[in-house]
Design a protein that fits this description.
Shape: globular
Order of helices and strands: HHHHHHHHHHHHHHH
CATH class: Mainly Alpha
Helix content: over 70%
Structural class: mainly alpha
Number of strands: 0
Number of helices: 15
Number of domains: 1
Strand content: under 5%
Largest sheet: none
CATH superfamily: MFS general substrate transporter like domains
Distance between the termini: 31 Å
């Protein structure tokens, strides 16, 4: 009989599912809304995505550090989910790029506050030999919400005759449900509170060298991983209608959701490093396929490969950070990882938008492939302990 995962992992997975169901409806409709309805350049979408995601990851640096200092996870998780839920009604009342940026900014700050404490809580509650599948399960449940969201967006747009603002109002409902589930059901055990209090007062300088090397690889890898919004733009670029363009995210999340948990199980059995390298190579292949003029078939294949690379990297990076960091510095280490990734996310999304506007879609994906190949080389050269 396979080992059972802690109840906390399941609760956090369900909470993530509900919040992602809400957030990804907005995410699915924003590229077409910004570039078609508002007539903004692709660089503007890249800047909005980049600033929002970078903000989320940078806030994780602070929330992770404070979570370790206070030796508490749930208050920070609740604050993060609560702020994200409150940000949702800002989208339907937004009238331009700056209000949309403000709404995304608030939503992503909420994501940033909860991210490092949530991943640290999973590590707190899960034995090391089960962490791969724990992160894989949470990621899979999160991706179920992301898979359903584009389908919901398409159905709601058809039902409401393209009234995006009304769709945005409806999309706020699962966000508030996510907060309520976390508030009423999530329980924080006390065993990690018994760790050495002095150790929790040390700073970021005490992050282990092994974790630092993983953070560096993650930084270069994230430079290659611009927003999935560019997959939607690629669909629009080859002639897919704005109404059907969210189906790209359905394909992406289908591959992501189906593979994330099996990848986590396999990482527990054979180690995360080799699988992580395979995931990075998948991104290289996905970018090359999306860059070449293969039309709709290339878009479908490239998007599925893109989802596969996410399944084989996101949870595995989390496992490597958790395994390489001591318990009193666990959320701090996650915060540093996400902070570094946040800077890379900002550079990646803005850079991808500029390259797209100046040189077109193929050049954008080729640049991503080159950076992913560099990250793969860095991972190969890491000392074996890492």
């Amino acid at each position: 009989m396979p080992p059972r995962l802690p109840r906390t992992v399941w609760v956090l997975g369900i909470v993530s599912l509900l919040m992602d169901l809400s957030s990804e409806i907005y995410h699915a409709l924003l590229p077409a809304f910004l570039t078609v309805t508002l007539g903004l350049p692709v660089a503007a979408m890249g800047a909005i995505d980049g600033v929002a995601e970078a903000t989320a990851n940078m806030v994780k640096l602070i929330s992770g550090r404070l979570s370790d200092r206070q030796r508490r996870r749930k208050p920070w998780i609740m604050l993060g989910y609560g702020l994200s839920a409150l940000s949702k009604p800002l989208f339907p009342v937004a009238g331009g790029a700056l209000p949309v940026l403000g709404a995304r900014f608030a939503d992503r700050i909420g994501k940033g506050i909860r991210g490092a404490p949530r991943d640290a809580m999973i590590a707190d509650e899960t034995p090391p030999e089960l962490r791969g599948r724990a992160y894989g399960l949470r990621q899979s449940l999160d991706t179920v919400g992301a898979f359903l969201a584009p389908l919901a967006a398409i159905a709601l747009m058809a039902w409401l005759a393209g009234d995006i603002r009304t769709v945005f109002w409806i999309a706020a409902i699962p966000a508030f449900a996510s907060f309520l589930v976390a508030w009423l059901v999530l329980r924080e055990s006390e065993h990690h509170v018994a760790s050495d209090g002095k150790a929790t007062l040390t700073g970021f300088r005490d992050i282990t060298p092994e974790t630092r090397r993983i953070i560096l690889v993650g930084f270069v890898f994230t430079l290659a991983r611009f927003s999935e919004g560019f997959l939607i733009l690629r669909a629009l670029d080859i002639g897919v209608t704005a109404t059907l363009s969210p189906l790209v995210l359905v394909l992406f999340n289908l591959a992501f959701g189906l593979l994330a948990y099996p990848a986590g199980i396999l990482a527990d059995r054979v180690g995360a490093r080799g699988l992580l390298l395979g995931g990075i190579v998948l991104l290289v292949v996905a970018d090359v396929v999306l860059a070449l003029p293969f039309g709709l078939a290339g878009l479908i294949a490239g998007t599925l490969l893109w989802g596969g690379h996410m399944a084989m990297t996101q949870g595995l990076f989390a496992k490597l950070v958790a395994d390489s960091s001591p318990a009193p510095l666990r959320a701090t280490s996650f915060g540093a990882f996400f902070f570094s990734s946040g800077i890379a996310t900002l550079l990646a999304s803005i850079g991808a938008g500029v390259i797209w506007d100046s040189s077109g879609a193929p050049a954008t994906f080729i640049a991503g492939a080159a950076l992913a190949a560099l990250a793969a080389l860095m991972l190969i050269l890491l000392p074996r302990r890492a």
